Amino acid sequence: MASGKAARVQLSDDEVDDILYLTRTNESTELQQYLGQLSQQHNCSIAALLESSVDEDNGNTPFHYCAANGCADLLRTLSSQLDPSTKTEVLSRKNEAGNTALHWASVNGHVEAVKALIDSGVDVWVKNAAGHLPVFEAERAEKDEVVATLLIAGGKEDEEKSRAQEGEATEEEKAEVDVEAATSQMGESSLEK
């Protein structure tokens, strides 16, 4: 399928249930095989299948189940198969209760799933229908490592935004400048020999 936004696919209830079941049970190999079969059957990308796999009863996605069950490796694998232009949006989808995959990973204390979601660019400041942030859910559930991870990620995000607004170089821009400076110094020292 061409790059760009993956088209929604009309999946049967059984197909969605099978995708969600294989995700919940962390059956990575079987899930990948099944997604491959469905991709051929529906003539679509795996990204389109993943974007279309939403439980009609509660709004949960495969990413909610990966996060809730701490399946960080499967979460990374599936998120890598998403269309880059919609990846963050898909990973940030809210279920019927307004919870994102990050809320579920946080409340259940799955720090590696939390890190995978943060690395994929999800918003750590998103609130659920009750008005709770993922960090609040983690703190209430006494998941201290997740709380620390979210606070660090949120702090870095806020610091980067603040620096950008003040016209200061971001950490990424500083790293680029450091590399350029080191490269030019290496060139100068090799000429002096």
TrEMBL record:
Q: Where is the composition biased (Basic and acidic residues)?
A: 155-166
| InterPro entries tied to this protein | Ankyrin_rpt, Ankyrin_rpt-contain_sf
Give positions of region: Disordered.
153-193
Q: Give residue spans, biased composition: Acidic residues.
A: 168-179
Report keywords, A-Z.
ANK repeat, Repeat
List compositional bias (Polar residues) regions by residue number: 183-193
Q: Where are the ANK repeats?
A: 97-129
**Domain of life according to the entry:** Eukaryota
Spell out the protein name for this chain.
Ankyrin
